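Notebook entry, structure prediction.
Reason for the run: the old model in the group folder had no record of what sequence produced it. Starting over properly, with the input documented here first.
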Amino acid sequence: MKGKVILSLIMSAMFAFPIMGCNDSGNPPQDIDTRKETAVENLVTSLSNGYYSKNLKTSDFCGLTDPSVVGAKQKNMSDVRYPVPSDKEFAHVYNVADSGILPTNTDNSGALNILLKSLKTVDGLKKVYFPAGVYKFSATINVTSLKDVYLVGEDTVEFMMTEWTEAVVLKDSENIHFNQIDFDYLVSSTVTGKVVSANDDNKTVTVKINDGFDMTDYRYNGGKIKYGNFMEFIQDSRTGDYFPNSNGMLVYNSTGDQVNMIENGVYNATERELTLTFGANYYKRPQVNSVVSVGYTMYENFTIKMDECKDFYMESCNIYSSVGMTFGFYSSENIYLNRTNVVLRDGSNKLMTATADGLHTNDCLGDLFVSNSIIENTHDDAINVCTFYKKVTAVSGNVITCTAPNAAANFPTKVGDKLEIYNGETMEIIKSYTVTDVASYGLVYEITVDKRVRDVEEGHLVGNLTRTPKLVVENCVFRNKRNRGILCQTQNSVIKNCSFYNIIHGSISLHAAFDGFFNEGLIPRNVTVEGCKFINNQGSIASADVFIERHGGTIVAGAIKNITVRNNFFNGNFNSGISFRGAGDCTAENNLFYNEKSLDDASNYYLASIVKSENVTLKNNLVFFANQRDEYEMVYESDASGTVLQNNDLKGVAN
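New structure, fully documented this time:
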């Protein structure tokens, strides 16, 4: 009886009061706003500190539609997008230990390559499982003509390369997954030290090399650099990280453009001192005790190289060092990287990850998605997405004869591809066509298109709209690096909720070049940059955090179109936050630009620079100066037309 009374009281209470989690109408309540209210003066300071978004709001006009969604979200960095299926979903599961592939081996290259080669004739979804441990490899792991394969690590699996060569090369493969596998090189291709002396007459700098680097190894060539780099670093007062010093020497010998800035090098093993000799035009005396990184590779190799593949996935992987570029993806379709980090190993005294690009693509198509990842301390671009133009040599009826620039830039044209023909001097669009047939002879292509060719002349350029990917970069951090963050030479792309911190040559470049040297890139169109954070980035090449420019030849308005820059926070060391050059029909809206410079240094800071551009709209933006100024021009304009300024405001400027 007592139990029934208690139950009756409980039921009465349930019906007497609203059920928790619903409002009076029985509908679930709206999410509680947990953002912290703050004045815009505090908002800019808070947003400037740290890589990730802050849970903030303000009643003041700050430009931003929502300050709490600006920058990468730290909690999302752990989100898994491409998980490993359960074992029952695989047709075959292989434990590599059964093939003699073991962490105790000095070299697993041969055994793993034999195992992977055997999978060519095996149908169904296949899992290659690596028990926890560090696996050594002296030679490249080849993934050739494979389909439906997962390479999966348990917990802390690591592939350790004992030679300076590609770690993995993929060719003609489809639906390949790497999950929970890290990569590193046993002998680092970069070393770290401090400057102990410099000789202006001899153009030499002597560096005391840190412990942990054995420069007597033959790979370091006795100290002499064939291809490599020298970079001075300074420490960030906010984060404590080291990042390249734009006022110091950031010089290199490159396999790419044949620049030779470092003439000689000698290593004294007794003193652990490396003395480098620089070209007269490149030497700049460093301060004693300056922290430096010296690289002994440049573009020679990749950690992971892929050619003519489809549907490639990496999930929850770290790449700690590369002897060149980390990723080189060519003529491949649909690439998905999540929680795939190019980062320094915890506790490492290295200052560089890749000695060239972090991720470089040419002639790729379909999706290129990079999410929830960190790319730091690379020498060249963190992400570079491009392709190459062909040059028209003759036209007859429905046939366009054209040539690729060189063997390295000779990428295919295929039936069904959508082509645009450009004026090679101005990059204005002449005509568009669809390919119906192709014949190729080395660098020469005879391309038959769907209609008679008109207004196309010798010297015009052929761009391939099909063989360029849709780029989506979401919730990523780019930091502490010499060259650009993202070089986006593609279309229909989104860069969203990313953080750019201490990028020396500009955060995002949306440009295309045909200048006789860089004959690459598709004219960017329909690109959105949204919800990003730009902190302490600088530019000796780019002149803004978001740099929109047609490069080379005669600049005309409207070459680059439909770029939207929305709800971003800028705190940088540029003359302007956004640069438009040769652009048209672009919008910058609801952005917050914060300038910490002194009164004198801030004299040339603009919200945007608009040069040889048309129909650029700037609206609902705020420029906030830490130091009050007597006057200010919102925009720098030169040879621009149709500029619209609407509801932009200033703070820290006397009216």
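Summary: Confidence is low (pLDDT under 50) at residues 1-26.
The old model has been moved to the deprecated folder.
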